[in-house]
């Protein structure tokens, strides 16, 4: 059977399983059996096809619903963050890597531009901010901006603002990813310019150790939101072997799930920035502990755990 005929014959059933999965255990088991049969056929005749990857992911999800979520007391929120979301992230690891590499590239562009254009720092950061920071440096409080304002109100404002930015980065995927890329560019260039400014003052190390207390999570959330926007854009631009509208529905669903991953990160980042970063005289070891724990959490949840979970369910499903 040709691949196009195989897809046309079964795609409605697959989409129904994905969008409206069976709720009764017998229905779930039957759907899993059918998916394994379809996957076996696809792997035999179309081993390198995207439809094989699609069926593998769908069968894996159905396997999890049978064997990994038997405890009735487990909340749906726990299932989402411990099972569904990591699998979606694993599926789009390449897009996440592209988002990360673009961010690093744009940061480098910001550093290069600031180095070669003396007015670029003020153009990006603003005259008021640069003047205030230079005054704080002369007075011996280079990061005094983080000491101002009420802690709780700062926390609320920072979370609301960062969440708005992340939402805009994700929703930019609706316009073929243009605004996703441009907003990622703007934020990354600002980071590069900011660090180069402190480098010219001989304070890049102190800057990184202070800013990254909250920046590790905050910048990770931006990269994740950009990944979500690119997933949305990619589903519209490159639907593969399924209808463009069906691909867009899947991309929107999975992109939104990835975007929601940034919610707890932004919450924690706002807490750190509002309550912790302001204590710029805290011991070096404590700063390093916070930053390294944040990095470990990001790497563990976004890279290591999704790969482990994917490997585990694939091995169990086809024993």
TrEMBL record:
Organism placement in taxonomy: Bacteria, Pseudomonadati, Bacteroidota, Chitinophagia, Chitinophagales
TM spans (from-to): 95-114, 177-199, 211-233, 254-272, 284-304
Show the coiled coil region(s). none
Q: Which organism is it from?
A: Deminuibacter soli
Name this polypeptide is given: Stage II sporulation protein M
Q: Does the keyword Transmembrane helix apply?
A: yes
Which InterPro entries is this protein grouped with? SpoIIM-like (IPR002798)
Name the keywords, alphabetized.
Answer: Membrane, Transmembrane, Transmembrane helix
Name a Pfam family for this protein.
SpoIIM
